[in-house]
Amino acid sequence: MSLSFTKKERLNNILFQVFVALFCFVMIYPLLWMLAGSLKTSGNALTATLIPDGLNFSNYLQGWKGFGGHSFSIFFRNSFFIAGMATLGQLFTSSFAAFGFARTRFIGQKVFFAVMIATVLLPAQVLRIPQYIMFNNWGWMDSYLPVLLPQMLPVPFFTFLMVQFIRGIPSELDEAALIDGCNKFGIYFRIILPNLKPVMVTAGIFRFYWTWNDFMTPLLYLQTVTKYPISIALRMFSDPNAITNWGAMFGMTVLSIVPTLVIFIFFQKYLVEGVASSGLKG
Amino acid sequence: MNNRFEALKDVSRIDHRIGIKKIIKMNLEGYAFILPWLIGFLAFMLYPLLMSLYYSFTKYSIVGNPEWIGLQNYLTIFLTDEKFWMSLKVTFFYVVFAVPLRLAAALALAMLFKKARPLTNFYRAAYYVPSILGGSVAISVVWRQLFGSKGAFNDILLSLGLINQRISWIGTPDTAIWTLILLAAWQFGSPMIVFLAGLKQIPKSLYEAAKIDGASKWQQFTRITIPLLTPVIFFNLLMQMVRLFLMFTQAFIITDGGPLDRTLVYALYLYRKGISFGHLGYGSALAWIILVILTVATIIIFKTSNKWVYYES
Amino acid sequence: MTKKILVSCLVLLLVLSCTIGVAAEKVTLRFSWWGSQDRHDRTMKVIELFEEKYPDIDIQPEFTGWSGYWDRINTQMAGGNLPDIVQHVRKYISGYVKNENLLNLTPYLKDGTLDTSNIPDSLVAMGNINGRQYGVATGVNAPAVYYDKGLFKKAGISYPSPDRTWQDEVALIKKLHDKLGILGSANLTSQTDVGGFTVWVRQHGGALYNEDGTALGYDDDQIYIDFMEMTLDVLDSGAVWSAPERAENADTGVEQDPITRQEAAMATIYWSNQLGALVNSSGKMLGITTMPKLDNQLAEGRFLKPAMLLTVSANTEHPKEAITFLNFWLHDIEAGKILGTDRGVPTESKVKAVLKEDASEIDQAVFDYIDLAAANAGEALAAQPPAYQEVVAAYEDVYWKVIYKQITPEEGAKEFREKANSILANQ
Asked: Which residue range or ranges hold the ABC transmembrane type-1 domain (chain A) (predicted)?
């Protein structure tokens, strides 16, 4: 009985591997293509072939040099700073706010919750000009404040996400803690936060790469080149009315998604069932 | 198993035996927790929000000053702006197909990937790649390589004998929007991860109990996974609806609204009017219209959620 | 006692801040431009050179790619935070001028502060909008037709001459297609810019806009109808991209033109400073010539234009220093050598002469072409009206409808006129 079961499992596994591997190619095709493009000689970066005409790393060297003496090490550093701060801040503040919405009661709760949901519906383009005028009046131009603060304080996407997950945590746990003499803050730190690990990882991954990729906000508020993040730098290769160095641009784009991928691969174990508890027992 | 979206009950409904002191304490606690959000909202959102509402009643060229014109922008939009109606139609069509496709793909792959098998770590990351690339140049070029007249999709259809001449799927008015819908379905990484996190939260004891009762995999899926996942499904549905309603970059880089405005999604039209042409007042009016539409859609989803979303507690 | 300390501290602080104020009398100018890697490198070198020569002026570079550049400039303008010096294009400039966001340079031009010696008047005038000077041209550009010499030889067809007419051009594209079995060209004229049609209208003795930019500047819709019928004729012959193929490639840019893959023998109407990009992607030198003439044309419709304009914003606190920078940009030989032809062919004759001496093959071809284009250029284009982008969008809308055969050229002429006039009247 147990032998035939493992056979079936093995067959399942093989089918799974074949299907997933085939589809995997479709999924990462653009990345492979970009990688190939970054290794081609500069004039050929846009051809359709996946196999580059030799291994040509000059695009990386040329690209890394950056612009007018500002190399990509600066842009990477800035991006790590911005995305790192935004992620840490966001995780803390939005889980805090979500706990407030999901597990405490106060006057005006419904209204505030509705307002929060409503703010996710606003097209960003509309807020841009008034926001700019406001930050300009506050003297925040060319500083990281307008780029960082709004991304460190709770944004509706994450707050709502965490509200949904907190509601899935049995409230008996809260009650038990209350009886043990915990106050609300104690419940947040001792009960809710440890149980939020998967969603914190999810939110952390999202916040990191959304901030990492965000182009318009830093473009509007940062003026000094040494403060630019990588998202702006990547577009500084391109001028449709003159020459675009596609090879260098693809090379730097490939490098720029490495941190996101590494973070994803490193943290994803928190997203899934551990090996021990999955079907190994048969 | 009562439905508890209405978890946010008014204080008035709280038990009368609770003393006034306790009520004050509860309120203080509540406000302390939502304080970061409240600060963010008051500092960064409220003023721009009100300003854009004000702008929507003005004629405001981006290079000039706002000038009050009352309802004129709204009247023009509703009565004479053909492109507005076109973009609404395009956007609705897009959302109706793209959201379910993306969510279905995300859920299917999350189910497939929730167990640790050899190489799944690698695959999960690989399946996430298209979403990371988002709206980059690579995506636009690759999409053209796939669905352009010289594209691989045509090669496949030709070799299967399904078509006898090459079709430009991106350049043909009736098919262009479908290439964008497919792109949306293909970039299912974000909801997939949210689903994975949701699946992880379901207690394993439930599955073990079901197994002992002899439930099949499918029964486990429909009776345990889906009901317990409804808060997350609800979240993904709402958020993806909003995201795709306001989808901009993909349409901007691949079709730029063409051919013949058949992919002119709402956010793209808003961007053109408000930013490219500099009609900030008109653009703000367009934004408030979509805000109202989305709010209505959201309220409907929230109302129906009482019937199908299950909350623990 | 404590009061005394406090007061003396305050006094000290005041004195300190004053001395700092005096010591740091260095003027800082913000300079904003768009470009790609090569241009950023060149510009930064020029800025370094400038700061060496003028130690009391500090240039703060604020550069980006093309994508997002205008969003940023527009937002900065709305916030009253424009950089002191802004790289501009002539087609977008009218709105900024109309709302007085740019500094009127005419007084500085008259008293000689803005030095235009060795620059031909016609080129100085490129920065002139409605009778006032608002900028200086970084260099000269002209619309250009590129062709693959090898493919022409293979087809046994002689190279296109600047004297050919539109009919010749149509015949040429068809013939190349017949002989080579590839596209004659990707298209006859561009759909995304009114470039082709503008020239056509001028050749008919009209202009796209009337003098004050409040309506279209041609009366006879037959002009539009003829132009679109010619376009449809080429389209139907299969010698150029079909409408859907054009749509899918509408924004792909010069590096992906079929001429770079030997899939077309010509590329019509790019700018002259794009030769480098085309040659780089095709892997071989290309020929370059002017747009066609009109048979029995009433006026010379072809034109030169400033590649970009350097403008000074109206809210600058240091107009004199900003103009010092413009003068340096225009006249300094070393700076000219660094900048090369990246922002068009230099307007200053001495700088141009030095550059010409040791120009690369590509630059040499561009220099020669600009001379050819200048010899075949009519009046400078009037400044486009503030609603330019909207008119172009309306033009494009109608253009697509005609080539997708949704409407006839006659209906198109009427629709474009109605839409354009309504936009221009209400801007």
From this structure: 76-267
